[in-house]
Write a structure and sequence with these properties.
Elements: H1 12-15, E1 19-21, E2 24-28, E3 35-38, H2 40-53, H3 63-76, E4 88-97, E5 110-119, E6 130-133, H4 159-167, E7 172-177, E8 182-186, E9 190-196, E10 203-207, H5 219-230, E11 235-239, H6 244-252, E12 256-263, E13 267-276, E14 279-282, H7 288-301, E15 312-314
Parallel strand pairs: 6-7, 6-13, 10-11
Antiparallel strand pairs: 1-4, 2-3, 2-4, 3-15, 4-5, 7-8, 9-10, 9-12, 12-13, 13-14
Length: 318
């Protein structure tokens, strides 16, 4: 049952940011009302990695067992899951350090809990493209940091930049890194750009790679890459560093086709404009690729199509 937590005021989660979490959803299939989870194995793997990065004991937990426990919780809360496409039960598995000493040390005690909450459609009246600003002195993450882990410390420092972006009339911050202004993420989402590559003259779907350790390995990100590579389309799918200079040039030469953020909350969020160095980069929105990705992923989540093996976990099956 839902209740308040009782922890010591010296608990290290309150002082040193020793906490991590996941974001996932449970769905009711529109075809047969069966309860579904979408790729929970990916969330469990990421939670293990986040715990390991914080040097939490127990990061080698049995991922299948925790996934089963969450499945049982979803079945218990079935009546809280709204019906209809776009509706779901948001799930927030969380691990906090309850080590009750002020000394800075690896925690010896933890608390794992899962919050559930009914949520409605992210877009109530169709897609709503967003405007971004890349004109910020702040950096979200860096090599060797915690950008590839889902820890609270990654999010708290973004509150001020987000508020400053809102004052400029922008919905989110487009996070950059390095002297070449490499594009990393947008807000709390991964980001994709669809463009015509100047060298190859081919259409290319581009997102930042994971090899540097400053990009969160999003479940939606991975799903988009997998699906796009499986389509029989005349386009390249790349994980590489895209700079703002390259993006500006593509825009000026009419090679920038569309762009979108990707994450659990919205699946995809179309981008219509990026503010950079005082200028607005206009982007066509909402594009055909954005629509296709939205349609395919949500169709898998709500049981309208089968999807790759192991993506849609039917909790209603014995």
């Amino acid at each position: 049952p839902h209740q308040d937590l009782k922890i010591a005021p010296a608990a290290s989660c309150l002082h040193y940011g020793l906490q991590c979490f996941e974001g996932m959803k449970a769905y009711k299939a529109v075809t047969d009302q069966s309860l579904r989870l979408f790729r929970p194995d990916k969330n469990m793997t990421r939670l293990k990695n986040s715990m390991s990065r914080l040097h939490m004991p127990g990061s080698d937990f049995d991922a299948d067992e925790l996934s089963k426990c969450i499945g049982e919780l979803v079945k218990l809360d079935e009546k809280w899951i709204p019906e209809g496409e776009g509706y779901s039960l948001y799930l927030r598995p969380t691990v906090i350090a309850t080590h009750k000493f002020l000394g800075l040390a690896a925690p010896t005690s933890l608390l794992l809990f899962v919050i559930t909450s009914p949520v409605g459609p992210y877009y109530k009246t169709g897609f709503e493209p967003i405007k971004l600003t890349a004109d910020t002195p702040y950096v979200r993450a860096w090599p060797g940091g915690t950008g590839d882990a889902k820890v609270g410390g990654n999010y708290a420092p973004t509150m001020k930049p987000q508020a400053e972006a809102a004052k400029k009339g922008c919905s989110q911050v487009l996070w950059l890194f390095g002297p070449d202004d490499e594009i990393t993420e947008v807000g709390a989402m991964n980001v994709f750009f669809f463009m015509i590559n100047k060298e190859t003259k081919r259409k290319e779907l581009v997102t930042a790679p994971l090899d540097r350790g400053d990009i969160l390995p999003g479940v939606t990100r991975d799903s988009i890459l997998h699906l796009a590579r499986s389509w029989d389309e005349d386009m390249d799918v790349s994980e590489r560093w895209l700079t703002m200079g390259e993006l500006v040039e593509a825009s000026k030469e009419n090679r920038l086709i569309e762009a979108f953020g990707a994450g659990t909350a919205a699946v995809v969020t179309p981008i219509s404009c990026i503010q950079y160095k005082g200028e607005d980069i206009k982007i066509p929105a909402t594009g055909d690729l954005t629509h296709r990705i939205w349609d395919e992923i949500t169709s898998i989540q709500y049981g309208k199509i089968e999807g790759p093996e192991g993506w849609s976990i039917n909790l209603s099956k014995p």
